[in-house]
Amino acid sequence: MDSKGWSLKGSLLLLLLPDLLLCKSVASLPICPRGAANCQVSLRDLFERAVILSHYIHNLSSEMFNEFDKRYAQGRGFITKAINSCHTSSLSTPEDKEQAQQIHHEDLLNLILSVLRSWNDPLYHLVTEVRGLQEAPDALLSRAIEIEEQNRRLLEGMEKIVGQVHPGVRENEVYSVWSGLPSLQVADEDTRLFAFYNLLHCLRRDSHKIDNYLKLLKCRIVYDSNC
Ligand SMILES: *[C@@H]1O[C@H](CO)[C@@H](O)[C@H](O)[C@H]1NC(C)=O
């Protein structure tokens, strides 16, 4: 990982330090280890951490997209071909803040869970396929690895939040299936690189949406809309 990435990670760890002291476990951040009785995290703290994480993931996704664009997409006209079709499109997520405001917080929480779950599989494969990219810059791979890990962490955090907001309610297991692996492996270079481009474009878009939804939900649920 490059130094910028580490310093960001370092500042994240600093922010989460109280949790470190309490739970004595770095690996389980930002979630308490199972069964740690004195490690009940307040809803407010869970939201604070989720927002920091989602912002971090969006930052990484944007940087990864820019990196890929600079290294592989120049002069290929991908931007004009980029159809706004993502595997998560079927989840019909609100496009902007106004639309999101109209949605009941329970549904919005479920939507976030669904989008995060829908990225588990493609992010896993993205790491493997970026490894196989010719002359891939280190920054690209390190970001792919970091995004995959942080996405799983955010999903765990969101499950905790849903568990506190609606205790006892069985959370949804809905997600969109991704079937884009063959397109990341196709022999034709132009087609293959465009598949990467499109996937990273979608990742940047979805991570931005999640970041926005979370900020909105934090305001509504934790601060009773006084923010
Ligand atoms: C990501 O965060 C770093 C550190 O705060 C910042 O310098 C960089 O501009 C951000 N990148 C994007 C694409 O927003």
Automatic annotation (TrEMBL):
Zn(2+) binds at residues 55, 211. GO terms for molecular function: hormone activity; metal ion binding; prolactin receptor binding. The keyword Protease does not apply. Its main location: secreted. InterPro entries: 4_helix_cytokine-like_core (IPR009079), Somatotropin/Prolactin (IPR001400), Somatotropin_CS (IPR018116). Keywords: Disulfide bond, Hormone, Lactation, Metal-binding, Secreted, Signal, Zinc. GO terms for cellular component: extracellular space. Residues 1-28 form the signal peptide. The keyword Zinc applies. One of its GO terms (biological process) is response to nutrient levels. Transmembrane segments: none annotated. It is found in: Secreted. PROSITE patterns: SOMATOTROPIN_1 (PS00266), SOMATOTROPIN_2 (PS00338). Belongs to the somatotropin/prolactin family. Interacts with PRLR. This is Prolactin.
